[in-house]
Amino acid sequence: MTQPTLLGLKTDLKKLVVDVANLAHVKPDEIKDDEPLFRDGLGLDSIDLLEIAVHLEKRYGMKVQNDDSGRRALSNLENLAQALHAHLSLRAGQATA
Q1: Does 84 map to a domain?
Q2: Is residue 73 part of a domain?
Q3: Which residues of 57-92 are buried (b: 16+ CB within 10 A; e: fewer)?
């Protein structure tokens, strides 16, 4: 199985954020990689972030921890994509070992 690219993950994650948070007024390609996901950025709340975390675990097996690394991962799309890419790379490495 091929490893998703970082760009591909960003595209998928933008669609996920729009769908999960019901952002009907936002198109996925309008979300900037460094735009904050909550408060002054996209305006997501803690329930939206929890739903995104649940989807990440179901779809990719990635558990977002309730610590500094989890908060950093959920701060914007760039950080989320980087964290997911690292998680998937680690899983792929373990599968081939």
Answers
A1: yes
A2: yes
A3: eeebebebeeeeeeeebbbbbebbbbbbbebbeeee
Residue type, 19: D
Give 36's strand partners.
76
User: What is the number of domains present in the chain?
Assistant: 1
Yes or no: say if 15 and 28 are a contact pair by the CB < 8 Å rule. Answer: yes
Residue 85, token pair as written in the block = 């890419």
CATH of the domain at 57: 1.10.1200.10
Rounded CA separation 29/2 (Å): 24
Residues in the chain: 97
- The reported pTM is 0.90
Determine what percent of the chain is predicted with pLDDT higher than 90. 84
